[in-house]
Design goal:
By secondary structure, this protein is mainly beta. It has a single domain, classed as Immunoglobulin-like. The protein contains two helices and 13 strands. The strands form three sheets. Strands 3, 4, 5, 6, 8 and 11 form a six-stranded antiparallel sheet that branches. It is globular.
Length: 198
């Protein structure tokens, strides 16, 4: 059993509402079968302040599983954000990008806040650009644009959810970038995250 469990990974979720400031997260793990075996992890967390007049985003999450949930599960349960199950791909440490195998699907999830709303149409007007880049060669392999009206037309908030099969990518280092250009507020914002394909 030990050899099998050494290669197994588990992902845990705990949601805590926090006000904007700096925190420290400390996690201790103890082996109940061997009290001398303990693990410890500590990391600072900065909860940002969002301003009503400034275009803002959440963290860009790279996930290995993402799907819509039924109406009874909205906002409840592990890895559920709103009406979507988003299980993040977790790297072994903060210095290592997350890794996907060529047969897996790369999903990304992000929210955008404070989009401008046109007073006449009561709709937003922004362009969302998805980009996959080979960071070693410096070449853009995929770039796709979508209008915010096609995602959530009458909202100042967008939830961006996209899936991408990595089977077409050669083993190497990549990054995914989501850019949002708001035509009404004349603001632009982008989030990027690195990943590795094996």
């Amino acid at each position: 059993m030990l050899e099998k469990t050494l290669d197994r990974q588990s992902v845990y979720w705990k949601a805590l509402p926090l006000v904007s400031q700096r925190y420290r997260l400390d996690i201790a793990i103890k082996d109940v079968n061997n009290p001398d075996h303990m693990g410890y992890f500590g990391q600072g967390i900065e909860v940002p302040t969002f301003h009503d007049d400034k275009l803002e985003t959440s963290t860009l999450i790279l996930a290995d599983q993402m799907n819509a949930v039924d109406s009874h599960s909205i906002g409840t349960g592990n890895f559920i954000i709103g009406n979507t199950y988003v299980r993040p791909r977790v790297s072994p440490n903060a210095m290592t990008p997350v890794t996907f195998k060529r047969g897996q699907q790369l999903n990304f999830w992000m929210q955008v806040y404070n989009l401008g709303i046109d007073e006449a149409t009561k709709s937003n007007s922004a362009t969302v650009t998805y980009q996959i880049k080979d960071t070693t060669a410096g070449t853009v392999l995929l770039e796709q644009q979508v209008a915010s009206k096609d995602i959530e037309a009458h909202s100042d908030q967008l939830t961006i959810e996209k899936g991408f099969k990595v089977a077409g990518l050669q083993p190497g280092k990549y990054s995914v970038t989501i850019k949002v250009n708001d035509a009404i507020s004349k603001q632009e914002i982008a989030q990027s995250a690195p990943f590795v394909v094996e």
